[in-house]
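[audit] Reproducing an earlier prediction to check determinism. Same input, same settings, fresh worker. If the tokens differ from the archived copy the diff job will pick it up downstream; this log only records the rerun itself.
[audit] input (553 residues):
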Amino acid sequence: MPITEILAKNARLYGSAICLTEINPGVEEKRGLSWKELSLVEPRQSCCYRKELTWRAFDERANQFAHLLLERGVKRGDKVGILLMNCIEWLPIYFGVLRSGAIVVPLNFRYSAEEIKYALELADVSILIFGPEFTERLQVIKDNVPGVHSMFYVGSDCPGFAEGYEDLAGSRPRYAPEIELFDRDDAAIYFSSGTTGFPKAILHSHQTLVRACEVEQNHHSQTHEDIFLCIPPLYHTGAKMHWFGSFLVGGSAVLLRGIKPKWIIETAANERASIVWLLVPWAQDILDAIESGEINLSDYDLSAWRLMHIGAQPVPPSLIRRWKKVFPTHDYDTNYGLSESSGPGAVHLGVENIHKVGSIGKAGYSWQTRIVNEQGEPVKPGEVGELILFGSSVMKGYYKDPEATAATIKAGWLYTGDMACEDEEGFIFLVDRKKDVIITGGENIYPVQIEDFLRGYDKIKDVAVIGIADHRLGEIALAIIEIKPGLECGEEEIQKFCTQLPRYKRPYRIIFDQVPRNATGKIEKPRLRRKYCGESVVRQQFELDSINPKQAP
């Protein structure tokens, strides 16, 4: 079954039900409206702050965009890029591309002009649809991407080099075009996060996308009555595939445009959200805001909120212990996956296993896992090896890169590049990225273990550990530490705390600085290496990555 059939089913069964709500508190905050005043806005009224869409309207808008693409000569297998911030138009456009038989290519909204050009050329994109935030970047490259013959613009003040999406698509037929789709048809190209090298184009079929829907719904038991609060960017498989669990059962989703802790809590309360997926920094910020008094939980009715889950990067156990103290009634879960595995769910902790917090869990629904050594042989429980995955949601391959595909998929198994170990009960614990391992004096040091330990210090907001060259030991651990606002902390204090670690695991150097994270919450370690290690180290990392490309979202 192609994934577009799920949308058609939802339109038939729940046509008049609200499926998407866009909340944009920043716009109204600038106009001086309080949240109390906003709560008086009619629920179904369209405005800058709030927009809503029914399943029937979602389906019809997807059809209209599909007809527009077909009129412009789009054929089966052509590539259509999406460069939009989260908005209510995003998902209907995504499914419109699929309905036309084309392949949808979501782009990272943080890409520079040159990175956009790189992605468009790598994926052979012929049509691009974009929003106002990207006009200046596209202005720079528009004459240097010959493969792109049409650009559609979502918003007001359409630039001269593009055409207005609303006017063109809005006048097209609302019925589905007569394009036959099949399970094995190519459906989407997602780009890896690029945290260890240049982004790679990851090709998925309709079948892998549908399986991602089934995996997510199996793990979190979404129903038609659940309301999913979606904050991470939709271009990323993490947010999209978590939404897929609601999509499968016709559940409603709220797209929040903003990550301020107060906005998240207020939106969860006002919209009666029952499932909220967070990234580590956002969960930390929410707890900090509550502890500082910026947020008073007694002001909000959060009784509908049943599940908080986190993914996309290693989750510090100390963070979840803090969360459960503040929100004792919430179920907690984490999922592990890669863009290459259709996003989260390949490994699943399960809400019943909160006692195993710190583990990413066991093989997810319909998945198999192994931890292997350099020869591909399984290691014993407790030993560190590379985590590999087998399941029906594995990508078809890296687009136009058979060598990289062969290095990553071996005998059907997806080699993740993540180092992990398994305890006696079969629970898997991430140790670190294979490429991030620091070898100091012949000992392997896994930065994630040091990072988790340091986050247990109450003055530390965030931390990243990288390896830097040392003439005697080969490499040593450098800890970049971000202190919580309003607090003071010195190196001597941190080193004293680190005496609880074995000597070889203690960071040799400590620098107090901000820890950069990308839009999906992962630490931007190449950026830190450029800053503290020099370009040669980063260049070497890119060369390694091109030989053995593996990327987790």
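[audit] rerun output stored. Observation attached for the diff report: The CA atoms of residues 443 and 504 lie 8 Å apart.
[audit] end
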